[in-house]
Amino acid sequence: MDMSQLYDIACRTVRPTRLRQDGYAGGVACALQTQDDAVFTGICIDLPCALGFCAEAAAIAEMLKNGRTIIKRIITVREDGAVLSACGRCRELIRQLHDDNIHTLIAVSRTEEISLERLLPNPWN
Ligand SMILES: [Zn+2]
Fold first, then answer.
1. pTM above 0.90?
2. How far is it, in rounded angstroms, from Cα 96 to Cα 104?
3. I need a labelling partner for 31 at 20 to 30 A (CA). Which of 22, 40, 75, 113 fits?
4. Helices (H) and strands (E) in the chain, counts
């Protein structure tokens, strides 16, 4: 599976849902490919008081539920199709799951992926 196919899966996972008050979910979706080529997806949850989590965290929870820890590539998209580079918290989360994830490719646009090693050159330990 290449980046373009993973992008299409992420786009199909977007499902904007209005929640009570100013709550919102599913406007951002993530698809990740594991070392053994399994694919997992997740959506964001945004609630008042900074409750909720990034789409990457939801996809990672699905991956962990299925016994995988090594991510080959990951892509996150907004409902308009724009690619969103993983935030600093998600980069650190990916890094802490497994040492091999330093090689995870993170999409920063529809055509460019950058390794976590380059995005997070001096990880916290
Ligand atoms: Zn994030």
1. yes
2. 12
3. 22
4. 4, 7
